[in-house]
Design goal:
single chain, 126 residues, alpha+beta, Immunoglobulin-like, 2 domains, 3-stranded antiparallel β-sheet, 1 helix, 17% helix, globular
């Protein structure tokens, strides 16, 4: 049963990713998939420069910090299987205690004031 659910989930994600990669040209192009100058492709997204934030030190032992905390609201740490193991509200001192985390790899997700993900980075805890 678990294998069947994982298989369905895998193919669902694969299908979604393939559609996102190819785009939907039904409303923006002709039958050959070519775009006219007046309509952008469906996969067009207006992008703005992203904030470059790094987590340091990496590898970490007791504490981590952020290179920039402007507009950052929260730090969420996930283990490698995706379970959230720690959450920190961003403070002025900028030191976050990770000493109680088990040694291993983690994903650190930085969330801004609008509850949007700014970046996700790997963290090696020693």
């Amino acid at each position: 049963m678990k294998k069947a659910l994982l298989l369905i989930l895998f193919f669902g994600i694969f299908t979604f990713a393939a559609q996102a990669q190819l785009g939907d040209c039904g409303s923006c192009g002709d039958q050959n998939g070519e775009y006219s100058n007046d309509k952008p492709p469906a996969t067009y997204i207006a992008s703005t420069p992203k904030q470059k934030i790094t987590v340091y030190p990496n590898p970490a032992t007791n504490f981590i910090g952020l290179s920039d905390t402007e507009n950052v609201q929260e730090i969420r740490i996930y283990n490698i299987i995706g379970r959230q193991v720690a959450t920190f509200k961003v403070e002025k001192d900028g030191k976050y205690n990770v000493a109680d985390l088990v040694k291993g790899m983690y994903l650190v997700r930085i969330v801004d004031n609008k509850n949007k993900i700014v970046t996700t980075q790997r963290l090696n805890k020693r």
